[in-house]
Amino acid sequence: MSEAQLRRPPKRRLPVEWLGILPFVAFAMLFLIMPTMKIVIGAFQSPEGGFTLQNLIDLNTDSIRSAYWTSIKLSLITALLGCAAGFAMASAVVFGGLPKRVRSPLLTFSGVASNFAGVPLAFAFIATLGPAGLVTLWLKTEFGINLRAMGFNLLSFWGLVVTYLFFQIPLMILIIIPALDGLKREWREAAEVLGATGAQYWRMVALPILFPSILGTFALLFANSFGAVATAFALTGPQLNIVPIKLFAQIRGDVLGNPNLGYALAFGMIVITGLANVTYIVLRTRSERWLK
Amino acid sequence: MTRFFAWTAFLLGVLFFVLPLVGMTEFSLKMRRGEYSFDAYRRVFEDQRFWDTFSYSLILAGATIVFGVLLVVPTAYWVRLKLPQARPVIEFITLLPLVIPAIVIVFGYIRLYNTSSVLPLTGSALGTDFLLTMGYATLALPYMYRAVDTGLRTIDVATLTEAAQSLGAGWITILARIILPNVLVAVLSGAFLTLAIVIGEFTMAALLNRPAFGPFMQLLGANRAYEPPALAVIAFAITWGCMGLIQLVTRFSKHERAKV
Q1: ipTM score here?
Q2: B95 vs A262: CB contact, 8 Å cut-off?
Q3: Are B221 and A108 in contact (CB < 8 Å)?
């Protein structure tokens, strides 16, 4: 800092410097914080404008409860499978003795695939696993396996799970590969010198270190699929009963017949994705302590 | 043994990722009975709505990028130079769009800026376009801010600023001619990622009722058989192109720096 700046009295300097982030603060207030606050406040307001908890109580209907439950189940399952498959692929590339050449294309592809969500992703899966899809027809003609008769329907819960994995797995790969790279070779050697087997090394050294980052990514994947609208909407249309689709229909046409109940529905989403992300941030800071 | 499992995991994963891509490509070529053809693509390209919605989304993406750069670069620069104590707060705000689902944010817009409010942005097409641009800037904020802030970390902001000031440069000159060129690679990465996010975005555009590419794809998906996979191939190519450009500018910059 220059001497001239140091000599100036601090009282006058302070507000002028904060002016520099005024445009950003104004933007964040107008288009991020105030809209969100509008929803949060609306969730606690009666139609006349007074304070009430009635909206949150009214969420407790069969249809809304089952929407939340399906959404949470969908997010948990896709996050779990996404983490497991992503971890398997990442560790195969980092430790499995695969040629070095596959690493960079895998990372690039993961960058593309984690952003290839929404409407086109639904189309890709309809063309592959839909009633007339490539894999569906191939299994039927070559092996006589009828996916539909076996109970698989792309336009259903499990179809959505398979489709969501297309962006969940790459996101896990993108986040976990740097963490796996952070495992020091010395730790493995030290464990081996002390007589540990490979499995013991993983169970007692590597996984405890990686655990916060895996669990943190799990939370991120959970929030990622909990808030997703476009893929589900393009795949199944408005009929699948999950929270984002329900909210979409509510915003378009007040299907719940009560605007304030809509606020409460959205507020519930903020609470759930908020909790998932707080978990992510807390666990991430914990894992960064080890992986430097 | 490890190697066997590694190859199995890797190849199963590759299969899972390749099959939908092959599936959509194959399906998009099957419009003509009995032979492969580009008929579905021709249909898509002959559709005026395709060009209208696509150029609409492209223009909005451009506006989002310009606005995002003008907002994020000065802010990130200023925070690094003068307000390091504001850093945690700013970073927290830039992460919020990952926490609050897009559908909730746009719900807030609709209720906050409707025709009976103080600022009736949804009352006119231009106002709604502006609102949608702000929404996209919000969605892109976490990625844009992270990219620019990482770029700023690699340069000595304070020294550059003092050097420019002692040569008589004002703030705008410093930002436009010193800082921006130095973080150009980061800005371009953020810009291409923004483009990839905005071009096929569905939720916000659909709920604000604007004729964007995402809602158009959804509409076509509900009514046609062969055009949707063709659109998926096009969308995938765009996403791939954006990511490829990010890699290209990053590699280019490494090359540049190596020469110096």
Answers
A1: 0.89
A2: no
A3: no
Q: Residue A104: is it exposed, middle or buried by C-beta count within 10 angstroms (0-12/13-18/19+)?
A: exposed
Task: Taking the CA atoms of B21, B23, B28 and B30 in sequence, report the sign of the dihedral they define.
Answer: positive
Asked whether the beta carbons of residue A89 and residue B201 sit closer than 8 angstroms, the reply is no
What whole-number distance in Å separates Cα of residue A251 and Cα of residue B110?
9
Give the residue on B whose Cα is nearest the Cα of A273: B99
Closest in B10, B100, B247 to A89, CB measured: B10
Domains of chain A with bracketed CATH: 1-43 (no CATH), 62-288 (1.10.3720.10)
Instruction: Identify from B15, B69, B100 which residue to disrupt to test chain A contact, counting A C-beta atoms within 10 A and taking the largest count.
Output: B100
CA distances from B73 to A34, B69, B155, B252 (A): 23, 6, 14, 21
Beta-carbon contacts of residue A241 (< 8 Å; ≥ 6 apart):
A63, A66, A67, A70
Arch. (CATH architecture) of B44-259: Orthogonal Bundle (1.10)
Domain locations in chain B as residue ranges? 44-259
pTM of the prediction? 0.88
Instruction: Give the CA angle between residues B127, B132, B137 to the nearest 5°.
Output: 125
Listed in sequence order, the residues at least 6 apart from B193 whose beta carbon sits closer than 8 Å to its beta carbon are A115, B140, B143, B144, B147, B242, B246
Backbone angles phi, psi at B32, to 5 degrees: -85, 135
B54 in contact with chain A, both atoms CB, cutoff 8 A: no
Across the interface, whether the CB atoms of B111 and A39 are under 8 A apart is answered yes
Which tokens belong to A171?
Answer: 């996101």
B86 touches A: beta carbon within 8 Å? yes
Say how many CA atoms lie within 13 Å of B184 toward its Cβ.
Answer: 12
Query: What's the one-letter identity of residue B161?
Result: T
pLDDT tens over chain B, length 260 residues = 678 888 888 999 999 999 999 999 999 998 888 888 898 899 999 999 999 999 999 999 999 999 999 999 999 999 999 888 888 899 989 988 888 899 999 999 999 998 888 888 888 899 999 999 999 999 999 999 999 998 898 889 999 999 999 998 888 899 988 899 989 988 999 999 999 999 989 999 999 999 999 999 999 988 888 899 999 999 999 988 988 888 888 887 766 655 44
Say which of A129, A229, A266 has its CB closest to residue B203: A229
Shortest Cα distance, chain B CAs vs residue A89, angstroms: 5
